[in-house]
Amino acid sequence: MKLTPYPMAALARRMFRELAECGSVFDLPQSRFFSATQDQDFSVSFHHHRVPSPLGPAAGPQTQMAQNLVLAWLGGARILELKTVQVLDELEIPRPCIDMRTVGYNAEWSQELKLEESLEEYVKGCMLIEMLAASGKIDGARHSRNVVYDLSVGYDLAGIRSARVRAFIEGMMRPKETVERLRNEIPVTLSTLRDLDFPVALADTVTLSTFHGCPPEEIESIIEFLMEEYRLNCVVKFNPTLLGAEETGRLLHDGLGYEDIRVPTSAFERDTTWEQAVAMMERLEQKAVALELGLGAKFTNTLIVENNQGFLPASETEVYLSGPPLHVLAMHLVRRFRRHFSDRIPVSFSAGIDRVNFPDAVALGLVPVTVCTDLLKKGGYGRMQAYHAQLSRRMEAVGASTVDDFILRVYGQAEAALGQVEGSPEEPRRQACLDALAGGGEPRRAAGDDLFGRWVSAAKLLNTERYVETVGEDPRYGREENATPPRKIGRHLQLFDCITCDLCVPVCPNDANFTYRLEEKEIPIVKVRPGLEGWSWSQTGYLRLEERHQIGTFADFCNECGNCDVFCPEDGGPYVVKPRFFRRAEDWERSTELDGFQIERQADCDRVRGRFEGRQFEIRVEAGEVTFTGPGFQVRFDRHDPEGTLEGEAEGEVDLTYSFIMDALRRAILDGDQVNYINSLMTQPEGEPNAGADSPSH
Predict the structure, then answer these.
(1) The domain containing residue 173 runs over which residues?
(2) pTM for the model
């Protein structure tokens, strides 16, 4: 199923209505929103920006759709690495494509939207964040304008120089045209937010993601092109194969015990070598200095491994490893890189980050610290709140009020770092620095800005050495601690009722899964047949519903990644078994291989299209009368007295149960007290543009 962007008007309306009525935004409870502390400053510098936190989502499933960006921001992300785009934007990605049963494997590697759609989703997400912040309805939202939207582009020079990728980059750098079009789509009920000063320059940084095997000279040419042509601050994302086959095997197999994870020999043969990477970064460093632009390195991309875990499609011989084992590999590369470049070239990080090691990554001065795999686990975006809570506790424990102070204090390396500073200060000034540190004072004031900056840089290097020395021995990264998949209870999912643990809702990065309540607790199982004397009526029991609510999937946002299946205690997969709701009739009609429903409300009539086991049905409900149509029949009846009012034509037996199910879903989705993506389309005020229609770029 292809992802389908959602109209700006309906998305904004749903967002604010849900916040007001349910205390959540896109199913993230308000209790999980990030709120900055009064006493601690998490802010860091990234290129030429000062941002309130180093935390961000990595380029991946959490940064593809507008609602993803909003959810990441609500969780506390302030550097959003947007999902990688490329000129080949009509990809066939295997399904399922994410395996989170143990560590993390995936078979997705690029955006699933058209380039033009990606541009619109990113601008739309930025505008929604600005609207939330300006509304005054989110505590601590004053830092919203300090968000960095970091582009991620790939995968080769020819593609990046193509007209369509150029248009995307230029549209992100100067989004005025898209902003003004989307501004006009903001609902009239939110008209006070239409005049906000939305950003006129949305992106000036880019993280380059290239194919495994992309020649280093091509990587260098791409960075030079992005710097010279667009004056973009650039980060080069490297692959973990830089470690070499021997070191990778030693860490992965001998150290961590992942003997079942096999890296193809060809991955090392076709990827950039360490020597090539160093030489390239030295040349690019000179280029960046000459152009007065920022240059950084990111560790790391995912690791190519053989597909031998039995979950992802067998058609994919190679897949991509993430999670705990990658954390250890990537940290060893950070240490190796800093041993050569010191702190001259900033380092960003993405590999197995979670709430426990996030403060350690911050203590190493890594910016941004991006996360993907951990947000695919139970709780989803809500897990981010614990990242800042853990950082806050660690800072408080050592008496640090800023990130730089934390870097100095956390591993007890401040004195040693001060001694290593080039042009080490004379004894009185040195002692003043240490006294300030020990006495809870302000080391920056004692040292002065220049010395303090060099002091913190030296501490980053010492902290890196200390952390990497021990990280590979930490059992939380080893196979034994990561070999147990989520528990299954041995029961198979059905269309209705499950154990309603609701785990499938937050683990969907696109917020495709949702809950709704059915009024009916018993739906009659009825079959009718026409005869000479009228209709014969045969009821064989009831479909009994016992749970407090039901689970549905919004088809437009479900890319069948399979993640909800992994964490669902029952077998079958919510995205496969549970009712799937389509926004547009044409999508429902085209997706003949998928069962599901399309519900719409017109001025005087509700209409539901349904597909059960490949058979298509439709009901129209007008003034209490139901018209039920299917293969070889059309019948009508009063929904309050179907047996007494049934009439119409049929070639044979008609199963009315399907009509009762569709009518129950209609009322639950459209008239229930829970906000969802379907009823948000049906509540547009008079005079507002049709929220169900696609915008011109689609």
Answers:
(1) 45-398
(2) 0.96
